[in-house]
Amino acid sequence: MATVLATGLTTSEAPFIEEARAHHQLYIHQPYELYSEENHAAWRSLFSRMQERWQRYGNKHFLRGISALCLDPQRVPRLEDVNRFLNPLTGFRAKPVSGYVPSFVFFDCLRNREFPTTITIRRSDRLDYLPEPDIFHDIAGHVPMHTDRMFADTLVRFGECAHTAAEIVNGIRDESLRLRRLESIIRAMARFFWFTIEFGLMREGSASKAYGSGLLSSYGELEHAIEASEVQRYPIQIEWVINQGFEIDHFQPLLFVVDSFDHLFGLVGELEKWMRAGKLDNVAPGEPEVNEQDLKSFLKASAHPLH
């Protein structure tokens, strides 16, 4: 126990998480007493330095959301406190997980107004880049948007698209064709999610502001996305997004702009129509790679349809 307390809940250095994974526990509780002072210091530093950039570059819906959640800038938040403010607004709640959530399971959580949330936090000497989500990315980046009714409904719509995908592949008897089509559909959904929910921009007057969580949780990239002359920013088009690969280890050179969350909600509905029409069956190859866990999660769902 002494080792656990000393280590705290630091990303990639948390015995509590390692034990949960060893027992194949995806859904866990948040053992708040395990957070170390370094963990709280990391949250404090991350939150403090983002304040000015949020005000300058954050979408108005995000700014309202971050205020509505009443997050403590000094200490890692308790998810039960976050949910106490969040749930009455849109029915969403943060749901703690031990790590990677396979694609279908993730989207199904969204369909049920649950957001899989990492409970670990990056080291205080590594604040700028983390290849995997942490609680700052999830709670300060994602969850403020979940306080907006139309955005929350858009996430639910994404979840419904995953069920549509499972339904489609369930009707394909040829195994190689089923896998090929499913991989393409998952890649298209991942790209759409990346360029909207993670790295989306929204028009505000003559400017664009960030609503994507990958931008809103990154001190360097948030400013770069709005100010850098080399970043390409285009009005969103489904055919571009689903065929556009992305890489996670550098600032994004290409971003897409929506007009509103009504617009985004409609685009997700259009994405589902394209899926049913077979327009997602042969998207351009490349990143992201679709891993075996993601494929299996959709195949399992297609074999056991949820209603």
What is the residue-averaged pLDDT? 94
Describe the sheet with the most strands. 4 strands, mixed
- Main-sheet strand order equals 4-3-6-5
Spatial gap, N to C terminus: 43 Å
Structural class: alpha/beta
Instruction: Please state the overall shape, judged from the principal axes of the Cα atoms.
Output: globular
Summed up, the domain count is: 1
Radius of gyration: 19 Å
CATH superfamily: Aromatic amino acid hydroxylase
Q: Return the string of H and E elements.
A: HHHHHEHEHHHEEHHEHEHH
Proportion of residues in extended strands = 5-15%
Which fold does the CATH topology refer to? Phenylalanine Hydroxylase
Note poorly predicted spans. Answer: 1-6
CATH class: Mainly Alpha
Q: Provide the CATH architecture.
A: Orthogonal Bundle
Count of helical stretches: 14
Query: How much helix is in the residues?
Result: 40-55%
Number of strands: 6
